[in-house]
Amino acid sequence: MPVSEIAKAPVVDIPAYATAEDAARLMAHHHVGALVVTREGELIGMLTDRDITVSVIAEGRALSTTAVVEIMSPEPAFLRDHSGIMDTLETMRRTKARRLPVVDEHLRPVGIVSADDLLLYLVQEVAYLGRAVSRGWEVERATKDTPV
Amino acid sequence: MSISSLVSPQVVSVTPTMPVQQAARWMKSRGVGCVAVVDGEQPLGLVTDRDIALACGVDGVLPDAPVRTLAAHPPVTVLESMALPDAIATMAREGVRRLMVTDATGRVVGILSADDLIPLLGEELAALGETVRGHRPAPV
Questions:
Q1: Which of A25, A30, A53 to mutate to test the interface with B (most CBs of B within 10 A)?
Q2: Do residue B54 and residue A24 have CB atoms under 8 angstroms apart?
Q3: What architecture is domain A3-114?
Q4: Prediction ipTM score
């Protein structure tokens, strides 16, 4: 299963020269916690809602004059669109990032995958497995009637 | 299994009058994404780093506004004696990933976070995996 198929949230990008206020507005409008920062369409950073709180508001800076490029995480770890689930889990564990951008061969962002997406995917697999096991016993009860 | 042993007791409590900017500084210095706004012993609400970013960036809340402005909704609160499946069901029903946990007197004892439960369930599943693997016939 390629990671691009389980990434649920829309990928929302923002140019590096936009302000923290622009970023907050985009995050609210699209109901996302992270934006991919691009320059000429290429991924150059990640910006989360937490970055705005701890790097702008906590520091007493103004949202309207702080540029995204000043507070983003530069050169973030990323996944390719064909990366698998284990690659994704391993990259998250190594980088301690809960969200990772997914890019194509030209470094253009095509998705963003979160730990929440992975939880939902894995839980669904386990639930299907549970149903298969339970269904197996049901089938035996319905088809085999063995006297003692 | 009750949730009392799973609650994070290092809940960062702030007073209702603390400025939003200071709450943001506490989140940064203590490495947490959420603080509990508590008036005396009464919990008023939870405020997350996202709440602060959007309140200041979109709703025009000033950084010197009191943090209680952002704790608009009473927190979803459960007793520490609650069983784990009931606590998870409460999270699902209320659509929240954090519960404020109190003792029988109403005093806040900590926060139960969905993030704390994922490793626990993962460990249980891994233990099950080892059991199942142990029962598999050895390859010939």
A1: A53
A2: yes
A3: Roll (3.10)
A4: 0.84
